[in-house]
Amino acid sequence: MTASSSLPDEVAWFVPGRVEMLGKHTDYAGGRSLLAAVDRGHTVTARAREDRMLLVTSSIARETLEIDLDAEPSGRLGAGHWSGYVRTVVDRLRANFPGRSRGAEISIESDLPLAAGMSSSSALVVGLALAYGELCRMGDEPAYREVVTDRERLAEYLGCVENGQSYGPLAGHRGVGTFGGSEDHVAMLCGREGQMVQYSFCPVGFERAVPFPEDRALVIAVSGVQAEKTGSALEHYNRVSLSARDIVGIWNERTGRHDATLGDVVAADPGAADELRALIDPGTYLSARLSQFLEESERIIPAATDALAAGDLATFGSLVDESQQLAEEGLGNQTPETVALQRLAREMGADAASAFGAGFGGSVWAMVPAERADRFAVDWVDRYADTFPVAGRAATWLVTRPGPPAHRVRSS
């Protein structure tokens, strides 16, 4: 969504998927994450039309969504999951930047596994906003330039596009139904090739970058259990998200403060974390959720990044194991399949391994020596299929390293 002197006729952007190395459900709670973009993703191409129709096709869905830009938004997200994200982005851009929309044919090509925890849905949001936004020169709008001053702010805005919240003067509009944050969007827009980036959230703030070991690769096993955010899965996802708000609500009620996130509470005073723990009934889901956030965001991530910077992969692996355990016991968002994949990876000698993403299925990453990454991946998935034959038949794998952030492929 960059400014230009004339309306382009065609724009194409590549947007990568992402791996959440650490930072399970911490971003929207004002915590921190350790992230990496990957070398797979969506390529979104937008070509101008003379009329006021928007035709969107997906190589994966193999269908075309038609939107009449002169008609009022229908209020429905559409029957297809991917089409709901398209409508969400288009409707929000039309609402925030009226008069800028133009007819276009948009095509989406992808080599990113869907519903695998690599955030294909957020990559779609980012890709559509970048390609269609540039085609319409929405970045020329004063309201846009006022608040979207860099890629970090763009990531925040697109996180709000997805969850439906307002962003400064850019009024909120119907989102996709998930109460998530901007972690995915930050990784896709601000990742660094060959490095992992540590960010804090609410607001987004860069903390540090650490090189990914040159002789290591990331093997990602897609469990075969789809990490959907629809139906009952959406309810489970939002329970994890909304519980962080519930804890802050208890804190504000008891203290008379007006903190917005758990991160704000922790930053308020050196003793705030202990005081907050004392306010939450022990043995409850809220207590477990609070412990997970505090340990993951305040202790594990800074220590793990330090270990990586020092080349101490043994300590890094132990800290990642703690994060995985907290996800299982504190978040309650793991399935037997993702738990088994993580345990298998460590048994097979991976330096570190963890489930990642929203949970309730999806993928597990493992850091292994690059020279044996392909062999490790085959053996890993084969051993997994021995225990989970149904999911194992649908399981896939890929080998990757931290890749570049979203970038323009062409503009004419």
Automatic annotation (TrEMBL):
Residues 306-384 form the GHMP kinase C-terminal domain. InterPro entries: Galactokinase, GalKase_N, GHMP_kinase_C_dom, GHMP_kinase_C_sf, GHMP_kinase_N_dom, GHMP_knse_ATP-bd_CS, Mevalonate/galactokinase, Ribosomal_Su5_D2-typ_SF. This is Galactokinase. The keyword Metal-binding does not apply. SUPFAM superfamilies: GHMP Kinase, C-terminal domain, Ribosomal protein S5 domain 2-like. Belongs to the GHMP kinase family. GalK subfamily. Keywords: ATP-binding, Carbohydrate metabolism, Galactose metabolism, Kinase, Nucleotide-binding, Transferase. Residues 9-47 form the Galactokinase N-terminal domain. Residues 85-157 form the GHMP kinase N-terminal domain.
